[in-house]
Design brief:
Strand content: under 5%
Strand order of the largest sheet: 1-2
Radius of gyration: 17 Å
Shape: elongated
Largest sheet: 2 strands, antiparallel
Number of domains: 1
Order of helices and strands: HHHEEH
Helix content: 55-70%
Number of strands: 2
């Protein structure tokens, strides 16, 4: 998608790639933390901390996949620069409401996936 769509799309390809890169880095950090714990380089209680990079990885991965940025939605903005588009503010209250709902869904999904994955990892190790 290359234009703003309320509650569905508020970032362009450049922003999506950026979010995907952050998600990959976060998942790599989570993986390194699990491996370090399994190898005994970190104490077992530290393993619960894998929640943080997993939450970042899941949320930013979802943002990249859905072309929707939670932060921009909460600020009432969109950004399609770099895709021949523009960036700007969203004034329509109905559009803002749709964006807020989508932002909440993505945030809850990221935290839920991270919590479930963290629990599975802690139980497995």
């Amino acid at each position: 998608m290359s234009s703003y769509q309320p509650g569905a799309c508020n970032i362009g390809p450049d922003q999506r790639r950026r979010r995907l890169a952050v998600a990959v880095a976060a998942f790599a950090l989570a993986t390194a933390q699990v491996v370090a714990t399994v190898l005994g380089w970190l104490p077992d209680p530290v393993l619960v901390g894998v929640f943080v990079p997993l939450a970042i990885g899941f949320e930013w991965g979802l943002q990249a996949h859905t072309a929707f940025c939670v932060r921009l939605a909460l600020l009432g903005r969109y950004d399609f620069r770099g895709a021949g588009g523009t960036s700007g503010e969203i004034d329509d209250p109905n559009y803002r409401r749709a964006d807020d709902v989508q932002a909440a869904k993505l945030a809850v999904a990221g935290v839920t996936l991270s919590a479930l994955t963290t629990a599975a990892v802690v139980l497995a190790v």
